[in-house]
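Reviewer 2 asked us to include a model.

Predict the structure of this chain.
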Amino acid sequence: MICHSGPDPESINADKNRLRLRGRSDQSSRMLCTPSRHSDESQSLSMPVNSVGHSGQQKSRKTAFTMAEVLITLGIIGIIAAMTLPTLIVNHRKQVALTKIKHTYNILSNALERAKVDYDTEVNSWYIPTEGTNLEKSMFFVETYMLPYLQVLHYCKDKYVAPYCNIKVKGLTTIGSSQGTILGPAASSYGTAFVLNSGAVVYVQVGHMTQEEIDMGGISRIRIKFDIDGPKGFNKMEYDVFEVELGGADGPNKKNNADRNKFLPYNYDTSKNCNYYVSEMPNSCNLKAAWGSGSMCLAYIVCKGWDFGDKYPW
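Predicted model (structure tokens):
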């Protein structure tokens, strides 16, 4: 009888140990590959969550104007520009003109002061021919008392030629005799002209008096019109052409007792209120004035402290 013996106890124990170790290894693998519920919850708490609920992802939202909004904005800007731009342009033009007016006025005034040093502080004592035409008297005054004290680019003398010696100037309005006048030696009754180095054209007329002034024993009036832009500008009274007279309002009115020792705006009178120069009287600075040359606009500017004020016609 053959008997088979059972498994060796030592081999049985070794097999059990191998199985036990394999089970532990499998459990460890499962723990590494499959996170526990607790680990999921702790991880979800530690990871950032954005406003739309996606954890760990930050999404930026870009905004832009629609085409309609852009067009509406551009339209509003265009309307505002159309309303304000003309005013800005006019104000800028006034400021530029005011600078040129004052510059030219000062040049002429300084030349007169220098001439008074060489001749006499009382201009009434200066020699001015009583015979001859207005053009001849004007040429004498300019050549004797002005040109030596100025920087001049061109002197017209008695030559009525373009472009500086025959500028036709329009009045402030088209009323009365303001249809146009000539700055230049157009005839013997006119004066002469010259060009400053600034480009301004200066027209000087000596001897222009009414018969009443002559009968009263008046002396030759000395009137000056200057065009701050020369022939290239508006060539219009009180836009770029302005008028001064030796003595201002006193020049033609008080015979030899007139204060003619400085150039003053045409018809300027220190006793007058500024509104006087913008009334509707002849030659005033008013678009409704009779005989609307606007010769008194410079008087208004000076009266307002070298400012165009609130009643200037442009």
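Residues 184 and 197 are 18 Å apart (CA to CA). Helices lie at 9-33, 37-46, 67-118, 134-145, 211-215, 297-303. We have added this to the supplementary material.
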